[in-house]
């Protein structure tokens, strides 16, 4: 079974709809992240959480919100989706106990906003 | 602000034609430099972490090296299955990794 799972894997929605993307992990990591990836722009950080009570904005948080329901679950919401939020979204986890935070990524959610 | 620049953006090789990908970086207090492989439509997969200048790591046909300003990912005698996008990231004092835009590698049979 995959260590980091994301649901749904694909989603098509309309402008103005509320959308929630979910991420679950079995790696036991405290740190979780949400990224979006657009062609030619690489991975951009939306939000990150270092533990259940810690939520931080990344470089492109406008239009998004998150919820850390448990150590293993981190959800990303688009309150009112717009077409330029069409992208590939990735959840990642990391373990800060080592020298560095090697990140482990989920399989991604492809979101299309019409 | 940490910055990562990868070059070239795209690289086409013939099977067996060795080459290198470059990752130039600026970071305050390097804790680690990461290389990831990403196949189309999939999440990035961890390859290597390098911690200090002079360090090298190898995995099959891949070898990663690190200097104080850049890292290279050397690909020796590549095969078509090595085709992917290779991402570089650095982690500094902010603890949040900064990613480059990646190099798209295509290896033709």
Largest interface: A-B, 23 and 22 residues
Average pLDDT of chain A: 93
**Secondary structure: helix percent of chain A:** under 10%
Question: What structural class should be given to the helix and strand makeup of chain A?
Answer: mainly beta
SSE string of chain B: EEEEEEEEEEE
User: Hey, roughly how much beta strand do the residues of chain A contain?
Assistant: over 45%
Instruction: Indicate the overall shape of chain B.
Output: globular
Gyration radius of chain B, to the nearest Å? 13 Å
Radius of gyration of chain A: 13 Å
pLDDT below 50 for ≥5 consecutive residues: which ranges of chain A?
none
Class by helix and strand content of chain B?
Answer: mainly beta
Terminal residue distance of chain A: 33 Å
Distance between the termini of chain B: 41 Å
Order of helices and strands of chain A: EEEEEEEEEEE
Q: State the total count of DSSP E strands of chain B.
A: 11
Tell me what portion of residues of chain B adopts beta-strand conformation.
Answer: over 45%
How many helices of chain A? The count is 0
Give me the number of helical elements of chain B.
0
The description of the largest β-sheet of chain A is:
7 strands, mixed
Main sheet of chain B, how many strands, which sense, barrel?
6 strands, mixed
Ordered list of secondary-structure elements with their pairings:
The complex is a heterodimer of chains A (114) and B (109).
Chain A: E1 4-7, E2 10-13, E3 19-25, E4 31-38, E5 42-51, E6 54-57, E7 64-70, E8 73-78, E9 87-94, E10 103-105, E11 109-113
Parallel strand pairs in A: 2-11
Antiparallel strand pairs in A: 1-3, 3-8, 4-5, 4-9, 5-6, 7-8, 9-10, 9-11
Chain B: E1 3-7, E2 10-14, E3 19-26, E4 32-38, E5 45-50, E6 56-59, E7 62-66, E8 70-75, E9 84-91, E10 98-99, E11 103-108
Parallel strand pairs in B: 2-11
Antiparallel strand pairs in B: 1-3, 3-8, 4-5, 4-9, 6-7, 7-8, 9-10, 9-11
């Amino acid at each position: 079974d995959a260590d980091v799972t994301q649901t749904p894997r694909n989603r098509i929605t309309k402008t103005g709809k509320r959308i929630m993307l979910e991420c679950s992990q079995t790696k036991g990591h405290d740190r979780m992240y949400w990224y979006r990836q657009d062609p030619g722009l690489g991975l951009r950080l939306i939000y990150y959480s270092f533990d259940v009570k810690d939520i931080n904005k990344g470089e492109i948080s406008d239009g998004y919100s998150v919820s850390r329901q448990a150590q293993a679950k981190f959800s990303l919401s688009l309150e009112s989706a717009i077409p330029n939020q069409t992208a590939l979204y990735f959840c990642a986890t990391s373990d800060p106990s080592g020298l560095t935070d090697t990140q482990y990524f989920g399989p991604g959610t492809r979101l299309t906003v019409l | 602000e940490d910055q990562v620049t990868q070059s070239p953006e795209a690289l086409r090789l013939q099977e067996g034609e060795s080459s290198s990908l470059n990752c130039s970086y600026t970071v305050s207090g390097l804790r680690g430099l990461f290389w990831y492989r990403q196949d189309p439509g999939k999440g990035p997969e961890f390859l290597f972490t390098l911690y200090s200048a002079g360090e090298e790591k190898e995995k099959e046909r891949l070898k990663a090296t690190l200097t104080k300003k850049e890292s290279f990912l050397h690909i020796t005698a590549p095969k078509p299955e090595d085709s992917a996008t290779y991402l570089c990231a650095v982690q500094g004092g902010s603890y949040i990794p900064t990613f480059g835009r990646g190099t798209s590698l295509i290896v033709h049979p």
